[in-house]
Every structure is written in C-alpha cells, then in structure tokens.
Amino acid sequence: MNEVHAVIELKITPQRDSGFGKIAEKVAKYEQVDACFLMSGGYDLLVFVKGSSLQDVALFVAQDLSTIDGVLSTATHFMLKTYKAKGVLDFDTDDGRLAVTP
Questions:
Q1: What is the predicted pLDDT for the residue at 102?
Q2: What is the pTM of this model?
C-alpha cells in the first residue's frame, strides 16, 4: 500500500494555562500524525502526517485539525518525492528520463 505523506503548518492560539501544550497534545494523539513540533517563525506547530490518499489527508486536515479550538490556520504541503531521509540518500537513477550531463 502506498502512503501519502504531508507536512502541515498550524497557527494556533496559546491557551492561558498550558501555552501551546494542550493543543499540541490533542494534535499528536491522532493516528495519522507521525510527528508534531513546536516551531519558531511564521507558524507554531509543524505536523507530519500520513494517509492513504491526497483526499484522505485533505479530509483529515479539514475535518479534524482545522476544527480544533485554538487552531487559526493550516497550510498543507504534500511530499512528492524523497531525495534523502534519515540521513540516507534515495536517488533512483532509473526514472524513465534521459540523463542530463554538463
């Protein structure tokens, strides 16, 4: 079975007593979520998710993540091809295209 992987940026409102922790805990408990990180910069949480299709991930974002109280916005980025993961290069040289040389 091929899985679809995506990275989702969440902007959230910190909660009075728990900061970002309660919302991050709620997000992290979903089975689709592989990893969840508090980030600095333009968004607050970076969430790595998986699903069976693009539509599956899109529905998860629309119906589950974006409806959590305190979630202000989401931005979803689908992973299309892996070139390196966990320190290991993953270049498939036989992708059906002609090689380009300088």
A1: 63
A2: 0.84
